[in-house]
Amino acid sequence: MIEAKNLSKKYKDKLVVDNLSFAIQKGKVTGFLGPNGAGKSTTMKLMLGLINGQGETLFNGKKLNSYSKPSSQVGILLEAKAYHPTRTAKQHLKILATEGNIPNKRVSEVLEIVGLNDVAKKGPGKFSLGMSQRLGLAAALLAEPTYLMLDEPANGLDPEGIVWLREFLKNYADNKHGVFVSSHLLSEMSQLADNVVVIGRGKLLANTSMSQFIAGNVASTVYVRVNDLDKLAKILTQKKISYIKKAKGLEVDDLKTDDIGKIAFDNQLQVLELGNKMASLEEAFLEVTAGSEEYQGKVKGKKS
Predict the structure, then answer these.
(1) Cα separations (Å) of 273 from 13, 105, 231, 245?
(2) pTM recorded for the entire structure
(3) I need a labelling partner for 102 at 20 to 30 A (CA). Which of 62, 74, 235, 241 fits?
(4) DSSP, res 291
(5) Class of domain 219-278
(6) Tens-place pLDDT, residues 46-86
(7) Which pLDDT value is given to residue 217?
């Protein structure tokens, strides 16, 4: 696994990363979440030794610079347009392959994987952001690394590209690799990540499985619609069961569908709709990071 231990980084008087410790496991996709300015990109750079700071990061028990071929340990995508714009996509990858002592045949393989074969001989200077992301991922994959560390890799991808990226990263992790990926696309991350690390203003806010993170921070509710909503609301109030009116029904806390169904049956109410409303990653994220946003907008005089 990758073990980040007590990572800290200060710029002038501002502590950007504050004593972070967490692990990235093989066979898992670990999502890295936090509001803008939380310190995610800085944390990744610290882990890779690209900037100086406190703490250390071990890759399978060793520092990255102790490996003779670091690119076989971790492939990175931190900046989508990190290439010389006058070289072709294929030339860019060949230079990286030569530097990493990687066979040239691997260049064609990764171009095929990311879907850039048709533009391999074109200069990436005019690539869209999505195509640049694909080229950056191709570079990260060149040495077939044990781990991938990707900072916002879905930026600029169209819906088809996002689905492709999700399935590719899940399959990559399933093949005894580890993936560490940051993203602001929370609905996508909820489908992608097995584990989640959440930070706010440089501090660790959560480090757990995705399912535990959601369940531990936001309660699931039951939505019910019956033929006499006022009667059901009165019964729930008498039983001191909390609820809120939602559309043409009620969202009820702390009960299962079976419980609501029994209450309706016992009181001769006709159930028109009944189902679980599962908590979302977005709800859990907003709950955990509340107050840790670096930048807060306002809507009609109210903080967003």
Answers:
(1) 56, 58, 16, 14
(2) 0.81
(3) 62
(4) T
(5) alpha beta
(6) 999 999 999 999 999 999 999 999 999 999 999 877 778 77
(7) 80
Q: What number of other Cβ atoms are within 10 A of residue 278's Cβ?
A: 11
56, amino acid identity: E
Two tokens, residue 20: 């972070």
Q: For residue 41, what are the CA distances in angstroms to 47, 51, 181? A: 10, 11, 11
CB atoms near residue 12 (< 10 Å):
5
- Could you tell me how many residues make up the chain? 304
What's the maximum distance between 2 C-alpha atoms anywhere in the chain? 76
Q: Which part of the chain is CATH 3.30.70?
A: 219-278
Q: Are 189 and 281 in contact (CB under 8 A)?
A: yes
Per-residue pLDDT tens over the stretch 124-146:
888 889 899 999 999 999 999 99
Give CATH for domain 2-216.
3.40.50.300
How far is Cα 56 from Cα 63, in angstroms, rounded to an integer? 8
Torsion over CA: 225, 226, 229, 231 (sign): negative
The whole-angstrom separation of Cα 148 and Cα 136 is 12
Q: Which pLDDT tens digit goes with each residue over 176-219?
A: 999 999 998 898 999 999 999 999 989 999 999 998 888 788 77
